[in-house]
Amino acid sequence: MTSDACRFDLRELDEQDRELIALASAAIREAWRTDRHSVGAAVLAGSGKIYTGVNVESCGYGPCAEPVAMGAAAAHGEHEFLRIVAVRGGQDPPAVLAPCGNCRQLLADYAPEAAVILEQGGRPGKVRAADLLPLAYPYFP
Predict the structure, then answer these.
(1) Residues 6 or more apart from 103 whose CB is under 8 A from it?
(2) Cα Rg of the chain, angstroms
């Protein structure tokens, strides 16, 4: 498999995408602790509200920032997720991150049509969540 096999056709970012990046960046700047919180996320819910979260490190396992942000939205009655972004803190500006494998599965389960903001070859853009995990494990509620 060549590296081109993992490339996506990125759609251009718009103002709402840039707002999500700014809010995820603000979340991690506020919470930054090298040993506890290093990634921030922001999710745009179907209502139009934006929810943020940060990863939670522990000795066993800690959730990534994306599920924390999605959980915050769900705790407020949100069931639809339209866009999501994660950023790495500890630098200025925080770098946009692609979701890890666990988060890709989470997005495939909860928001396969959501736009995921990421960078490819240093270029920011967005892709459909379902496209990040071909042949995803089927979730059966």
Answers:
(1) 64, 66, 67, 86
(2) 14
67-112, pLDDT tens digit by residue?
999 999 999 999 999 999 999 998 899 999 999 999 999 999 999 9
Length of the chain: 141
Q: Which of 8, 1, 5, 3 is nearest to 98 (CA)?
A: 8
Please give the model's pTM, rounded to 2 decimal places.
0.89
* H or E, element range at 63: none
Contact 96, 28 (CB under 8 A): no
Residue 66 appears among annotated catalytic residues: yes
DSSP 92: S
Question: Measuring CA to CA, which residue among 49, 63, 48, 52 is closest to residue 30?
Answer: 52
10-44 tens-digit pLDDT: 999 999 999 999 999 999 999 888 777 889 999 99
With beta carbons less than 8 A apart as the criterion, state whether 43 and 51 touch. Answer: yes
Centre a 10 Å sphere on the Cβ of residue 41 and count the other Cβ atoms it contains.
Answer: 29
Select which of 12, 19, 57, 66 is catalytic: 66
Which domains are present in the chain?
11-131 (3.40.140.10)
